[in-house]
Amino acid sequence: MSTERIEKSGSAGPDLAKSTAPADAAPGSAEGAATTVDPRLLVREQGFAGYLTEFKRRMRGGELGSVPVIAGLIIIMAIFQSLDDAFLSAQNLSNISIDIAGPGLLAVGIIFVLLLGEIDLSIGSVSGLAGAVFAVLAVQEGMPAIPAIILAILVGTGAGAFHGFFFARIGVPPLVVTLAGLLGWKGLMLYILGSTGTINLDSEGLVAKLTTYYFTDVAAAYGLAAISVGGYFAAAWIGAKRREAVGVPSRPMSEIIMRTAVLAVLAFVPAYVLNQYKGLPLALLIFLAVVVGADFTLRRTGFGRRVFALGGSVEASRRAGINVELMRIAVFAVSGTLAAVGGLFMASSIAAANQGAGADGTLLMNAIAAAVIGGTSLYGGRGSSWSALLGVLVIISIQSGLAIQGIGAPVQYMITGSVLLAAVVIDSLSRRTRRTAGRG
């Protein structure tokens, strides 16, 4: 049978084989053997036209990426700006950049879970519990802020690992165990806060300043933009040189420069706008650092590759030697940790820990909605930490625009729900299209 296959492949197209065989092929290589050409090389050789063709191919194949959410964000901003010039004012955009931090951090954590194709319903309650733990330790017990923050975050880590253990080792579905966590951690939060139900934070304390502190020097915002652009260019250039050195396809310098120029616009324009108000908010800086760190973890580390592998196929991951149980526990621990960090930001925004923190389900729904709207698939195996940034920008922009128009919470919920449904529909349709195109 193998001889028959060789004969068929050898007679399929000798002219094509000759045209694609390298001129300096080794004498012992099989006559008529063809070299495989990386399709990315063909795209880059064609320049802008090649990238445009590739973009159209991806759209037809259902590989939409961030295109829908970016287009939606532009439309949302254009509509609200046309209704009121205050929407794109420096003050309002600065407020939005702070408001996205809390739910955005929860969204980054939930993305890790969604990449497994699972769900975590406890993050709202865990965030409220972390805020309550910090308030009790720092305000009532007099513990220094930093140890209290660390312990509050570790509470979130422990809660997440607890959920992961019951899922990975006992086999309890995540929907059930995290629903139990939603109720259980909420009850513990109420118990810790006591009969008063509210503990006010020191307005000059470290946690309170998470959402009130600004780097007023214009050099801070511009410096962050410059570091981001310079760091990207250096990483892309070094990566291209390393790939060239080993004969692997790499981005040409023209593409690196073009990408860097686009990033420069996306970095320096917001920096300019923020400097027109109070400067760079600390909350935005921390949130962006977490997004970048999570992106590096998912794309550049073994842990991230294992997360994507599990989202693709659990059985294949198990056969590849991945410790499935440990990875599941670790992912839920990450979700709990970031939920706790987000809870500190939510407590900072109201300068208090109270019974309503994360308890009404709004924070949970906004975090999940942000991840899905931003492009993370509910089916697992596809997503990015940048989905949290894009998705939470959409949600907070809608809420801010409607608030400026004097429209209440009921309409905000209905519009946010509609946007979430549209995102899930787009995800389902693009997934079906990818399957039809053989890329599912």
Which key phrases capture this entry?
440 residues; mainly alpha; two-stranded antiparallel ribbon; 19 helices; 4 strands; 72% helix; 2% strand; disordered N terminus
Give the topology:
Blueprint: H1 2-11, H2 14-20, H3 39-45, H4 48-60, H5 67-83, H6 90-99, H7 101-115, H8 123-140, H9 145-170, H10 174-193, E1 198-200, E2 214-215, H11 218-245, H12 253-275, E3 280-281, H13 282-300, H14 302-312, H15 314-319, H16 324-350, E4 352-354, H17 362-373, H18 386-404, H19 409-436
Antiparallel strand pairs: 1-4, 2-3
Helix pairs in contact: 3-4, 5-18, 6-18, 7-13, 7-16, 7-17, 7-18, 8-9, 8-10, 8-16, 9-10, 9-16, 11-12, 13-14, 17-18, 17-19, 18-19
Offer a concise description of the structure.
This protein has about 450 residues and is mainly α.
So how many helices?
19
| Most strands sheet | 2 strands, antiparallel
Percentage of β-strand residues: under 5%
Principal-axes geometry comes out as globular
Alpha carbon gyration radius: 25 Å
